[in-house]
C-alpha cells in the first residue's frame, strides 16, 4: 500500500498522561509488559527523541491543539480567542470531531479545551475534579493512612509532620471516596475512557463521514492504583514488598520522607498501572483493526510528559512533578504514529517536538496550507497558517533525515532547556530582572506567582541557582553537571537557547 492522502479519512489521537518513554517495551524496557503498544510500534513509526516543549499538562495540550509552541508565550492558561485549534480548522468541513477524556485539567472552568468538538464525553473524578466527591461517605475500613507510607505523614511521636502530610491524606481520602466500590480493572478510569471510546467508534459516529477523534486518558498518572492494590494481592513487579500500598507520595523531596525501598515499590505500582493501560488501549487498537479502519486512519499514541520517580536517574530526588524541573525523565516522551501507506517498523532518531504532531495531522488531512478566510455563507473559517510545527511525513517517507537539530523544553517563566545530540542544557530563570529582559519572557514573574502552574497539589517553585550542562551520550539522565568543566559549551547553548526563544516570540 502506497501513501495516498485521499485514502486517509480519519485521525485518532490517543494521549496517555504521565507515561515515561522508557517504561515501554518498544522503548527498550525489558521488565514492563506492554504487548499491545509494542505490537502497535512494530506496525507504526517510533520516534526515539520526541520532546514536549512547554510543561506540564495544560501547556502540552495547548501546543498540540494549536500546533504552536507555548514556552515563550504562556504556561498554565486557557485557550484564548486568538488560538486557532485543530477543531477550529475542521469546523465547517466534512469531518466529525469527538473528544473522550477524563483529564480534569482540560475541563477546568473557562479553560475551553473541549472547544469546537462535535461530541464531548467527560469521565469525572480524576485529579482536580476529585474534590467533587469530598463529602461522599467513606467506608470506615478504608483509611487514607493505609494507602501511603507512615513515614510520609507521621513523625516519631505520631503527629502529622506538616501541612503537606495533611494535604496528602486529604488527597488520598478524596480518591478513595470515589473509587471505594471498584472491584476490577474494568472499573478503572482508563477502562471507562476506552469503553466510551469503543462505544463512539462502533455505535455513535456517522460511519459515512470522516472523523477526528481525540482520546485523552489521565492514566497512568498517579494515584498508583493498579489491580493488585484493589485485589489485595502482591504487585507482580514487586511481589516481596510487605508495606502499605503507596497510592500517592508527598510533593516534598523524597529524602527523609520515603525510603529507597518504598520508591522501588512506587515504581513497581507504576509499571503495573502501565500494563493495565496497555491492556485497555489495546482494546481500541483492536477495534480499529476489526472495523477495517486501520487502512484509512492515522493513529497517534503519545504522552504529554513523563514522571519524576525518586532519586538519581529516576527523578532527581522528587516523586511526582512537584518542581519545574525539565529533566529527561519528564520532558522525553513516547511517540508512536501509524499512517496508512507509510512503512511500519521504523525507528526515527531525529528530534521532534509535540507541535510537529499537529503539523503532521494537518499534512495528512491535506490542510497544512490552508489560510484564514470567510466562507460563502459569511462565516469566519480558519487555517493552519499560524502553526509552528514541522510535518514529520518527510521523515517517515525517507525524504529527509531530520526536521530539527535539537529540541527545547521547560516551564514558562521558570526554566528552559535545550537538547542536542551531544549535550543537554538547563537554564533556570531565577532572577526577576532576567525573566523580564527582552530576550526572555516579558511579564513571566506574574506566572511565577500563579498558584496553579502544575496539577500537583502542594508543588513548589524551587529551582537550582546555577545552570546545568550534561553530556547526553555518557550521562543521558543528567546526573553529572559539567557546566563548570565546559563553560564555553554551556555559554554557546545558552545563547542558542535565547535566540530560539526570542525567534519564537516574534512569529
Automatic annotation (TrEMBL):
Residues 9-366 form the Sulfatase N-terminal domain. It comes from Oleidesulfovibrio alaskensis (strain ATCC BAA-1058 / DSM 17464 / G20) (Desulfovibrio alaskensis). InterPro entries: Alkaline_phosphatase_core_sf, GAG_Ulvan_Degrading_Sulfatases, Sulfatase_N. It comes from the Bacteria. This is Sulfatase.
Amino acid at each position: 500500500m502506497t501513501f495516498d492522502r485521499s485514502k486517509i479519512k480519519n485521525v485518532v489521537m490517543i494521549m496517555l498522561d504521565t507515561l515515561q518513554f522508557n517504561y515501554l517495551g518498544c522503548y527498550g524496557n525489558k521488565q514492563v509488559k506492554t504487548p499491545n503498544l509494542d505490537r502497535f510500534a512494530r506496525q507504526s513509526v517510533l520516534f526515539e527523541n520526541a520532546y514536549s516543549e512547554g510543561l506540564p499538562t495544560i501547556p502540552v495540550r495547548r501546543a498540540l491543539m494549536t500546533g504552536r509552541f507555548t514556552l515563550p508565550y504562556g504556561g498554565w492558561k486557557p485557550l484564548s480567542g486568538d488560538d486557532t485549534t485543530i477543531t477550529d480548522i475542521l469546523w465547517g468541513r466534512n469531518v466529525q470531531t469527538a473528544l473522550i477524556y477524563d483529564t480534569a485539567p482540560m475541563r477546568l472552568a473557562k479553560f475551553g479545551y473541549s472547544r469546537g468538538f462535535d461530541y464531548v464525553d467527560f469521565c469525572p473524578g480524576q485529579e482536580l475534579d476529585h474534590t467533587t466527591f469530598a463529602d461522599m461517605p467513606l467506608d470506615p475500613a478504608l483509611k487514607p493512612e493505609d494507602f501511603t507510607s507512615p513515614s510520609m505523614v507521621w513523625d516519631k511521636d505520631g503527629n502529622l509532620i506538616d501541612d503537606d502530610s495533611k494535604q496528602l491524606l486529604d488527597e488520598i481520602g478524596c480518591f478513595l471516596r470515589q473509587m471505594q466500590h471498584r472491584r476490577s480493572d474494568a472499573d478503572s478510569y482508563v477502562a471507562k475512557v476506552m469503553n466510551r471510546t469503543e462505544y463512539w467508534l462502533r455505535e455513535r459516529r456517522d460511519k459515512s463521514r470522516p472523523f477526528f477523534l481525540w482520546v485523552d486518558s489521565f492514566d497512568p498518572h498517579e494515584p498508583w492504583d493498579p489491580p493488585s492494590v484493589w485485589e489485595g494481592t502482591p504487585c507482580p513487579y514487586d511481589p516481596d514488598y510487605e508495606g502499605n500500598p503507596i497510592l500517592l507520595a508527598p510533593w516534598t523531596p523524597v529524602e527523609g520522607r520515603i525510603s529507597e525501598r518504598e520508591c522501588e515499590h512506587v515504581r513497581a505500582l507504576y509499571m503495573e498501572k502501565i500494563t493495565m493501560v496497555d491492556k485497555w488501549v489495546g482494546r481500541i487498537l483492536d477495534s480499529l483493526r476489526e472495523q477495517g479502519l486501520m487502512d484509512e486512519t492515522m493513529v497517534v499514541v503519545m504522552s504529554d510528559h513523563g514522571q519524576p520517580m525518586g532519586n538519581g536517574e529516576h527523578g532527581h530526588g522528587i516523586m511526582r512533578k512537584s518542581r519545574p524541573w525539565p529533566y529527561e525523565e519528564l520532558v522525553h516522551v513516547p511517540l508512536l504514529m501509524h499512517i496508512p501507506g507509510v512503512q511500519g517498523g521504523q525507528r526515527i532518531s531525529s528530534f521532534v517536538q509535540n507541535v510537529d504532531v499537529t503539523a503532521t495531522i494537518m499534512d495528512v488531512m491535506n490542510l497544512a496550507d490552508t489560510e484564514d478566510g470567510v466562507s460563502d455563507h459569511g462565516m469566519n473559517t480558519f487555517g493552519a497558517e499560524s502553526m509552528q510545527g514541522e510535518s514529520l511525513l518527510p521523515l517517515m517517507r525517507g525524504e529527509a533525515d531530520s526536521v530539527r537539530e535539537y529540541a527545547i523544553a521547560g516551564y514558562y517563566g521558570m526554566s528552559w532547556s535545550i537538547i542536542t545530540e551531544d549535550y543537554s542544557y538547563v537554564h533556570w530563570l531565577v532572577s526577576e530582572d532576567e525573566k523580564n529582559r527582552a530576550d526572555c519572557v516579558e511579564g513571566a514573574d506574574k506566572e511565577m506567582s500563579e498558584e496553579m502552574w502544575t496539577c500537583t497539589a502542594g508543588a513548589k517553585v524551587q529551582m537550582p541557582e546555577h545552570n546545568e550542562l550534561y553530556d547526553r551520550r555518557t550521562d543521558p539522565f543528567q546526573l553529572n553537571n559539567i557546566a563548570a568543566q565546559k563553560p564555553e559549551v554551556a555559554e554557546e547553548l545558552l545563547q542558542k537557547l535565547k535566540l530560539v526563544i526570542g525567534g519564537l516570540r516574534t512569529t
